[in-house]
Structures are given as C-alpha cells and as structure tokens.
Design brief:
Blueprint: H1 9-28, H2 30-47, H3 49-68, H4 87-98, H5 102-115, H6 118-123, H7 126-129, H8 132-137, H9 140-159, H10 172-175, H11 182-218, H12 224-271, H13 275-291, H14 293-298, H15 308-323, H16 327-334, H17 340-372, H18 377-384, H19 387-395, H20 401-430, H21 443-462, H22 467-510
Protein name: BCCT family betaine/carnitine transporter
Organism: Blautia caecimuris
Membrane topology: Multi-pass membrane protein
Length: about 500
C-alpha cells in the first residue's frame, strides 16, 4: 500500500477547513471574534481554573514517581540498545523543539508583566518576587508535561513498535478497540487543534519582536504586513531546509541554535555590567521558588483580589498543554536507546537548566537596570503598553547593541526553525493511518502542514489580538487536551506494568 493511500484525509483536511474558516473570521471580524474568545476564556479559566492547576501539579509529581520507580529502568528500544544521539545533540534538539522563539521574548520581559500586577505588591517587593514567577512558570511543571508524555510516546514507538503515531494510540491500554473508532478519532482531532493553537500563540507572540528588531536594524516601517512577510519568509526557508535535511538537519540546526543562544546569554552576563546582581538575584529567586513551590502551584485566589493565577499560571499550564501535542512526540522519537529514567532526569537537567539560565540572565539584567535607577522600563511599558518596544529599549542599554539585536534575530530564526520543523514533522505523521518507525511522511503532506501551521498566526496578527486574546486561544484548546493527557498517563502506567510483567515472565522461562 502506498503512503498516499494510507493518508487519513479527515485528520488532514477537516482541521485545514476549520482553520481556514477561523482565519477568515479573525481577519474580517477582529473585534467580534476577540470578544467571543474572551468570554469563552473567562468561563474556562475562571470557573474551571483549578482543573488546569491540578493536572499541572499532578503530572509533575507523576514524572518524579516514574523516574524513581521500576518504570525508570525500561529502555526506549531494545534492551541493549545505545542512544542514537549524544547527550548534547539530544538535549539541544529537545530544548529547541520544546521551547520556540518565545523563550527569548519572555526572558527579557516577563518580570515587567508581573511587576505591574497588584499581586506582587500583595506578596512583597518587586525585587523579591518579580523574578520568581518567570522561573516558576517555565521550569518544573511545564517540563513535567513534556517528559511524562515523551516517555509515554517513546514507549509506544520504540518498545511497543506501534505504527499509529498519534495521541489516540497512546491511550490503547485504556481504550482498547475504541482507539480505532469514534473516540480515537475525536482524541486525534482535539490533538491537531491544540497543535495549531499552540503554534498560533507562539508565532503571534514572538514574530512581532523579530519584526521590531528588523525595524530597529534596517529602519523599515513596522506594520502588520512586515510581520506577515517575516512569518512567510522564515517558514519558507525553514521548510526548504527541512525537506533537504530531515532529522539530521534538525540535529545540526538545534546544536547551532544552542551555541547562538548561550552565546547571547554569555554576552549579556559578561558585558552587560550586571553580573553580580544577575547571579545573586537569580540564586535568591530560585531558592524562593523551590521553598514556595507547592504554594505557588496551588494558589487559586478564591476571592479574586487580583486574579493573578487566572491571568498567568492557568494560561501557562494551558499553553504547555497545547504544546504537548508536538514537543513530547518529538522528544520521545529522539530518545530511542535511553532509559525512561535517563529521559526524564536528562530532560529536567538540560531543559529546565537551560530555561532557568535564560530567565535568570536576560530577565535579571533588565531588572537590575530598573532597580538601580539606570533605566525605567516599567514607566515605558505603562506609557506605551508595547512590550516589543520595551525589549528593544532593554537591548539598546547593552554595549554593541546592533550586534546583540542581530544575534537575537538569528537566534530567534534558529529557534523557529527547529520548533517549526518538529511540529510540521509530527503534524504530517498525524495525516497517516499507519506510519512505521523508520518511515517518513511524504514531502507534499509536510508542505500541506507547513501551510496549515501559518494560517492562524497570520490571521491573529491581522486581527491585532492582544496578549489576553492570544492566551484565550491556548486556554480554550487546552481544556479538552488536559483530560487526554491524564488518560495517556494512566494508559502508559498500565501498559508499562504489563510490559514489566511480560519481561519478568520471559526471564523466568529462560532460566
């Protein structure tokens, strides 16, 4: 049977049709669509907010349990198989696929969003708390989502050798024959919509920063058309690269991205003049985050004095949930030959470690300038409300600012490349009824997914969606996906238990 005949046209074309319809609505009715998004987001985020928080904390605790239990000894592949990629190449691909260019957008500026929130004043000073929430929202729980699902998908692909590379297949131990029926189809459609929502949110947040950098460097007029051109050029370049080089290309690109990323961080730390402040504030923030971890993870603000968790923590857990469709599949597929314990602990070391370093260095650089009175980024943000302009002004306080802007632009493009490659690859795999472990999707199908993935971001850019509306897209898409994530986790534990029993029985028969 040819690959073309194995294509699942419902999974491929139905999302394409719905995304095209949504894009038209966002484009022609921006105000009305933003109002509808906000009202749905309010119901899900405000009324059912605890649902997101429970899943987030629960998945993180499950990841710790799996790593420390007998499940941790299971090799993702054959028992004596060695890892396909070195730890550095594996970690680079995992980090760059798991966090797109928005890590740079948020690293520079996230403390500003919290410093202007009344909840920080309730807790204490800006110095003590504005740098704590960024590392809380981007570290243990987010990577917990990724890693639990990565080992579930890796187990499904490399141990059970399943040929349906989909969300529904990882629920087979629980759903049984229903995996191949209506229920499995619904799970896969939800996963595809979540994938599109996550991509749309990321592109819509980070691409305007790239356009702002281009404007600053080359003095071209900054408008929505420029942002869309940036999206189209980058995706075309990335897609061509992906077609030519595949997984090997992603590995090379990911390593280059890591060198650029840490080069940028090293420059800011060593030459920004805030090294002591960055290290000391970062160390204190890390300690405060760990000391208050469970309090931060369970805070719901029942009286809505500031609605901080509804505005931020719940959005972030939803954001990570929708990214959980592509990133964990990719991490699981490149983790062949590693044990489940190595995958989880290595993921926490490389993924969380790199994320923390980014937020501590880039965030505390600008916070240091603010607290010492050398700059007033909070006043600029309150005056303009434009976070992209604030980030450009932060970078302009660095020595050799044009060089840093250029380095930032290249790094963001490299981040986009690896993230977009992995998303398009996983999305294309979804288009097939069955796809063997060593089979790859047809180039035409990958092209279709590349087109599909850029529709919604462009529509959101043209609808001039605010940060609030971009958050709404993720919160809405994540609501049903949260239940599927729980189902996958339970199914994995059941299937892994059965595998260990089979292994034990086989060893007894040999002896």
């Amino acid at each position: 049977m040819t690959k073309e005949k194995k294509i699942d046209w419902i999974i491929t074309l139905l999302p394409l049709g719905i995304v095209a319809a949504l894009s038209i609505v966002f484009f022609f009715l921006p105000e009305q669509s933003n109002e509808v998004l906000s009202s749905i987001r309010f119901v899900l985020g405000d009324t059912f907010g605890t649902y997101y928080l429970v899943i987030g904390l629960g998945v993180f605790l499950v990841s710790v349990f799996i790593a420390g239990s007998r499940y941790g000894d299971i090799v993702l592949g054959n028992q004596n198989e060695k890892p396909k990629y070195s730890f550095f190449a594996w970690g680079s691909m995992m980090f760059t696929a798991g966090l797109a260019a928005d890590i740079l957008f948020y690293s520079f500026s996230e403390w500003i969003l919290y410093a202007t929130d009344p909840h920080i004043a309730e807790m204490g000073s800006i110095q003590d708390w504005a740098s704590v929430y960024p590392i809380f929202h981007w570290s243990l729980i987010p990577w917990g989502f990724y890693l639990v699902l990565a080992v579930a998908f890796g187990f499904m692909l490399h141990v059970r050798k399943r040929e349906r590379q989909r969300y529904s297949e990882s629920c087979r131990a629980i759903l049984g024959k229903h995996t191949d029926g209506f229920l499995g189809r619904i799970i896969d459609l939800l996963a595809v919509f979540a994938l599109l929502a996550g991509t749309a949110t990321t592109f819509s947040l980070a691409t305007p920063l790239m356009a702002s950098v281009i404007n600053e460097l080359f003095h071209v007029e900054l408008n929505r058309t420029l942002v869309v051109i940036v999206i189209l050029i980058i995706t075309c370049i990335i897609y061509t690269y992906s077609l030519l080089h595949g997984f090997k290309g992603i590995s090379i690109l990911a390593k280059a991205c890591i060198y650029l990323f840490f080069g940028l961080l090293a420059f800011v730390l060593l030459f920004g003049g805030e090294a002591r402040y960055i290290i000391e504030t970062g160390f204190s923030a890390l300690g405060r985050m760990l000391q208050n971890f469970f309090e931060l993870a369970t805070f719901t603000d029942p009286q809505r004095t500031t609605s901080f968790p509804q505005n931020w923590t719940i959005f972030y857990w939803a954001y990570w949930m929708v990214w959980c469709v592509a990133a964990p599949f990719f991490i699981g597929s490149i983790s062949r030959g590693r044990t489940i314990r190595q995958t989880i602990l290595g993921g926490y070391v490389f993924g969380v470690g790199s994320t923390l370093v980014s937020f501590i260095i880039l965030g505390n650089y600008s916070l240091g300038k603010q607290m010492s009175g050398q700059a007033d980024f909070l006043a600029l943000y309150e005056k303009t409300g434009d976070l992209y302009e604030v980030i450009i002004s932060i970078i302009k306080t660095l020595p050799c600012a044009p060089f840093v802007l250029l380095l930032l632009l290249i790094t963001m493009i490299a981040f986009y490349a690896t993230s977009f490659d992995s998303i398009a690859l996983i999305g294309a795999c979804y288009s097939y009824h069955r796809l063997g472990e060593n089979e790859t999707p047809h180039k035409f199908v990958k092209l279709l997914w590349c087109i599909l993935l850029i529709f919604l971001p462009i529509a959101l850019v043209f609808s001039e969606s605010s940060m609030n509306n971009l958050q709404s897209v993720s919160i809405i898409a994540a609501f049903p996906i949260g239940t599927v994530i729980v189902l996958i986790t339970i199914s994995f534990l059941k299937d892994a238990s059965a595998f260990l029993r089979e292994q034990k029985k086989g060893n007894q028969q040999r002896h």
